[in-house]
Design brief:
Number of helices of chain B: 0
Strand content of chain B: over 45%
Shape of chain B: globular
Oligomer: heterodimer
Structural class of chain B: mainly beta
Strand content of chain A: over 45%
Largest sheet of chain A: 7 strands, mixed
Largest sheet of chain B: 6 strands, mixed
Order of helices and strands of chain B: EEEEEEEEEEE
Order of helices and strands of chain A: EEEEEEEEEEE
Chain lengths: 114, 107
Amino acid sequence: EAQVTQNPRYLITVTGKKLTVTCSQNMNHEYMSWYRQDPGLGLRQIYYSMNVEVTDKGDVPEGYKVSRKEKRNFPLILESPSPNQTSLYFCASSLRAGMNSPLHFGNGTRLTVT
Amino acid sequence: RKEVEQDPGPFNVPEGATVAFNCTYSNSASQSFFWYRQDCRKEPKLLMSVYSSGNEDGRFTAQLNRASQYISLLIRDSKLSDSATYLCAVNIRPMRFGAGTRLTVKP
């Protein structure tokens, strides 16, 4: 089944404890992206990747890191999480970064930082 | 001004009603448009792309008005199962989403 898989689904952590949220897609998509979703603010892009070894900042990259060493994987790293990073996170991918490629989303990671 | 704006609703309609949502975008260079559906606490799922000439998928019709820079989604014969939040998306690199319009269909 074609899908984007994120793990974990739920994560509760404490301020400053490094964490990684994994994202993997099996559709051979070139483009991958991370979003966070907060009430009233909608989906905001954190980082994106046009292809392997090519990553770039989105609208809200502060406090996050990503890597794209393989086409299928795009982990999101929080080196020192803070409470304002409590949010619902979605990984998404599309065939390419071109205009007519819709995004396919993972099922989300709900992160709470205390 | 936000790049993509939607009326947040909520829209509360009876079963069988016709309901329409609009979404405005600010970047006239935008080339591709989509509607997504999001159920509570779940991932957005692609509902339909929006084509220049307008397009229909069953009870759903999407239209694009480039001159006025908005897209619309029309749902006919609403079902209880249509209750969700509907997000419009505009691909202006990166893909930008509206904050969503919440629809509740009641018996």
